Amino acid sequence: MTTFRISEAAALLGVSSDTVRRWVDAGRLTAERDEHGHRRVNGGDLAAFARAQVEQVDGGRSSARNRFRGIVTEVIRDAVMAQVEIAAGPFRVVSLMSRQAADELGLEPGVVADAVIKSTNVVVEIPGHERVAGHV
């Protein structure tokens, strides 16, 4: 069974360790103490909690299920196109769109925006594991 330290759970959820501790103390998230007295969160419990958090935010209003709320950090415009960069927690999301769309949305550094992504090709990797040659 995979378990996570409070700090690891916080990093995976994109919140502070203090927030995870408050959730555990309030009974929203279950944690057990290890042999050293440190709180550990069961991986299955963390996955269920993360899924519930996503369902609260998403609300089923869109067929796109990949939604990242963040802050616009850069907008580069030319005559026709705009490149918009959003920092969503530790993630960098870059979008190319028409300049007209960027202007109509009022996209500038400091604006809060959602990057909503619908993709037919998603690569999943396991951190720390190298790919085997010849296998994708």
Automatic annotation (TrEMBL):
The keyword Phosphoprotein does not apply. Residues 61-126 form the Mop domain. Gene3D superfamilies: 1.10.1660.10, 2.40.50.100. PROSITE patterns: MOP. InterPro entries: HTH_17, Mo/tungstate-bd_C_term_dom, Mop_domain, SinI_DNA-bd, Transp-assoc_OB_typ1. Keywords: Molybdenum. CDD domains: HTH_MerR-trunc (cd04762). It comes from the Bacteria. This is Polar chromosome segregation protein. Pfam families: HTH_17, TOBE.
